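Friendly challenge for the regulars: who can give me the structure tokens for this chain first? No prize, just bragging rights.
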Amino acid sequence: MRLNDRFVPLFYLLSGLFGFAGVALAAAAAHGGGDAHLLASASAMCLAHAPALLALAFGIDKIKTAWLAGLLIGIGTLLFSADLVSLRFAGSGLFPMAAPTGGFAMMFGWLAVAAGAVFRVRP
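First reply, four minutes later:
Bragging rights claimed.
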């Protein structure tokens, strides 16, 4: 089994979980009061990155940097969203700077996608 093949199931799993969480968080934000904007932001990140992870899983043999991009986007989305959900329901975040760390991870994940244009898999 090649290294890239090991990431495909993880990307499918995260894509499905983020899609589910995104819809659930959007519903909670629509019906919640107070700090519901935190849930809306978490929902947006989950719903934006779920299809991206799915696409990276499909393109893992075509984009040399897909495994790195997927890991960064997956970990970043998880950190960012979980921190906002924790802040909303528990009153405190996961750890100091969890959301910004997740945000930076997502941004670097997208840069890894862009780097795939330069570091291409040759047929």
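The longest helix spans residues 3-31. The chain has a mean pLDDT of 92. Your move, everyone else.
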